[in-house]
Amino acid sequence: MNRPDFYEGNVNYQICSLPKISGLVREALKYVFQYQDNELYRTHRTVYLSQPLNLQERHLFDREQEVLRLLQEADKDLLVRIHPRHSAENYSGCSIDTVNNMWELECAEQITDENILISAGSTAQVFPKLLFDKEPSLIFLYELLLDKEKATDYTSMRNAAEKIKRLYRDPERVFIPQTMGEYKEALTCIFNYIF
Q: Are 139 and 48 in contact (CB under 8 A)?
């Protein structure tokens, strides 16, 4: 594993850490996965990572649209990375990552501490830290976009967000808003104070 301290399962053997991906191994991975050089994540520091959430209920769909509207007001250069099992139709008016490189390689090549990754609770948000010890600002929206009573992955998202916050050198870069008001405060904090 890249970060054995992130693992929460029960095993009866030692968990070893994988070596860091760098140099020739990184170049080989770029070749194997046909990485296309681009500047998307350098020119768009704010990234909304879509997820195939069950937003069939109107109030949850409307809430995601409100989240995106506020995000676009905060950063006109918002980039949306569409999940492979999700459609781009709900993100009109946003810049969309159409290159679709392997996310782990984008984390290696482009994601920095200057980026802001926003999602309900995507594993893509934690990869920069777990794989490359990078600490972009994170906003986890599971409290706003999931119905706690119906969402089967609510608990795992909450646990992952809380754990990644503990792993950050600066945990104040990880936001878990409970209300739309707290979400607005997180955006204000990130765009007016941190950078």
A: no
Please name which of 188, 91, 115, 195 lies closest in space to residue 125, comparing C-alpha atoms. Answer: 115
Token pair for 143:
């409290």
| No. of helices (H) and no. of strands (E), the chain | 8, 6
Read off the pLDDT of residues 81-127 as tens digits, 9 standing for 90 and up. Answer: 998 877 788 788 889 999 989 999 999 999 999 999 999 999 999 99
**How much is the CA Rg of the chain, to the nearest whole Å?**
17
Cα 158 versus chain centre, distance: 14
Q: Which residues of the chain have pLDDT under 50?
A: 1
170 within 8 A of 135, measured Cβ to Cβ? yes
The CA distance from 30 to 15, in Å, is 27
Q: Which CATH architecture has domain 38-194?
A: 3-Layer(aba) Sandwich (3.40)
Q: Is 166 left (phi over 0), alpha (psi -120 to 50) or beta?
A: alpha
Place of tokens 């950078």: 195
pTM above 0.90, yes or no: no
Whole-Å CA distances, 45 to 42, 99, 103, 117: 6, 16, 15, 8
